[in-house]
Amino acid sequence: MESIEKIVDELQKSFDKGWREFKQSSLFKKYNELANMLDWYNPRIANLRKSIPYPAYHLATQEIGKYFMIKSKDYGIYFDEVFPGDFNKSNETKENNLELRHFKLSVYHNNNLLGFIKISIPHSHDKFDILAPPKISFRSVNKKQYSGKI
């Protein structure tokens, strides 16, 4: 059995790994080209970024999160939404000159709600880029930051 704290740390490391690999991959260049094409083809899409998922970012986030999902499965935990979460329920903030898209997922193990993970994805609106690995924070249903074992 593992502590929630260790699991959250391992999940964060999986995002770090996925981000590093993605930034060095040919997919980064391809999604950048996709973003440029979409912006050129339809400049009005920029106005829709806050109401619909932007395809290049959505695909990039899924690629970056592949190890997160594998690690989650390894621990037998699952979520209430398809990764990275429901875009319509997400929100965006600006912190330290970074645009952050926040998704919230309910975390389950053996049909028991453990708590909630918030995934914060730093990105740019000026050009296609995910500037740093997504950051996660966990809140237990017991209102303790980390508690219990899996």
Strand content: 25-35%
Overall SS class: alpha+beta
Q: Figure out the total of helices.
A: 5
Biggest pleated-sheet summary: 5 strands, antiparallel
Domain unit count? 1
Shape: globular
Number of strands: 5
CA(first)-CA(last) distance: 5 Å
Low-confidence stretches: 144-150
What is the averaged pLDDT score? 85
Give me the Rg, rounded: 16 Å
| Helix percent band | 25-40%
Q: How would you spell out the order of helices and strands? A: HHHHHEEEEE
Tell me what the structure shows.
The structure is a single chain. With 150 residues, the chain is an alpha+beta fold. It contains 5 helices and 5 strands; from the N terminus they run H-H-H-H-H-E-E-E-E-E. Strands 1, 2, 3, 4 and 5 form a 5-stranded antiparallel β-sheet that branches. The radius of gyration is 16 Å and the shape is globular. Mean pLDDT is 85; it is low at 144-150.
